[in-house]
Amino acid sequence: MSSLEINSCSYSQVMKLQLSPPLVEDSNSGLLGESVNAIEDKPKDVIRFTAEKLSVDEVSQLVISPVCGAVSLFVGTTRNNFEGKKVVSLEYEAYVPMAEAEVRKICGAVRQQWPVKNIAVCHRLGLVPVTEASVVIAVSSAHRAASLEAVKYIIDTLKGKVPIWKKELYEEETSSWKRNKECFWTKKD
């Protein structure tokens, strides 16, 4: 078993942290440590809608796997301008149960098309100031091509099918709900 020693200047003792889980005997299945690998083999989809600030590091950690050599990310941020107007923030609203269901369908479609391991789609709701992340998408896979293509598919499909509405708030104290040109219900035949 490996351990990591951390020496602290303010403490006279050495603290040892365990790096691998202890192996525990279970009378029915033998070593429980074996089940850790079984859990690791199961792909996961993480879908979150939150009013909290998004952390790119936290989202990327959700998809990391020792069997993967690639983690691809898309981070959509609030920019400070649109068509000559100064944007101070964006405001997002969503019908969360329907939005989650649509993102689940997108994850399923990704898994049908590419050999990916883990998927995380996190979208901010409420006010999002300039430079902060509105959406963070992370996908892990054995090789980069699958995760890169999956991330592009996810953001393009999310913008086109998921019921999320965006309002731009301008410096002049005006605002405008934005029509998402990618949404299927806004396209003309």
Automatic annotation (TrEMBL):
Asked if the keyword rRNA-binding belongs to this entry, the reply reads no
Q: Where, subcellularly, is it found? A: Cytoplasm, Cytosol
Which Gene Ontology cellular component terms are annotated? molybdopterin synthase complex; nuclear speck
Against InterPro entries, the record matches this protein to: MoaE_sf (IPR036563), MOCS2B_euk (IPR028888), Mopterin_biosynth_MoaE (IPR003448)
Q: Which UniProt keywords apply?
A: Cytoplasm, Molybdenum cofactor biosynthesis, Transferase
Question: Out of the domains of life, which is the source?
Answer: Eukaryota
Name residues in a coiled coil. Answer: none
One annotated GO biological process:
Mo-molybdopterin cofactor biosynthetic process
Q: In which pathway does it act?
A: Cofactor biosynthesis; molybdopterin biosynthesis
Catalysed reactions, semicolon-separated: 2 [molybdopterin-synthase sulfur-carrier protein]-C-terminal-Gly-aminoethanethioate + cyclic pyranopterin phosphate + H2O = molybdopterin + 2 [molybdopterin-synthase sulfur-carrier protein]-C-terminal Gly-Gly + 2 H(+)
Q: Which coarse location class applies to the principal site listed for this UniProt protein?
A: cytoplasm
One protein family per Pfam: MoaE
Asked if the Swiss-Prot or TrEMBL record annotates the protein with the keyword Cytoplasm, the reply is yes
Quote the EC number: 2.8.1.12
Task: Give the enzyme class.
Answer: transferase
From the Swiss-Prot or TrEMBL record, what is one GO molecular function term?
Answer: molybdopterin synthase activity
Residues recorded as binding substrate, renumbered to this chain, are: H143, R144, K159, K166, K167, E168
What family does this chain come from, according to its entry?
Belongs to the MoaE family. MOCS2B subfamily.
Alphabetized PANTHER family for the sequence: MOLYBDOPTERIN SYNTHASE RELATED (PTHR23404)
| Miscellaneous | This protein is produced by a bicistronic gene which also produces the small subunit (MOCS2A) from an overlapping reading frame.
Q: Which HAMAP family match?
A: MOC2B
Cited function: Catalytic subunit of the molybdopterin synthase complex, a complex that catalyzes the conversion of precursor Z into molybdopterin. Acts by mediating the incorporation of 2 sulfur atoms from thiocarboxylated MOCS2A into precursor Z to generate a dithiolene group.
Q: How does it assemble?
A: Heterotetramer; composed of 2 small (MOCS2A) and 2 large (MOCS2B) subunits.
Protein name, entry field: Molybdopterin synthase catalytic subunit
Q: Gene encoding this polypeptide?
A: MOCS2
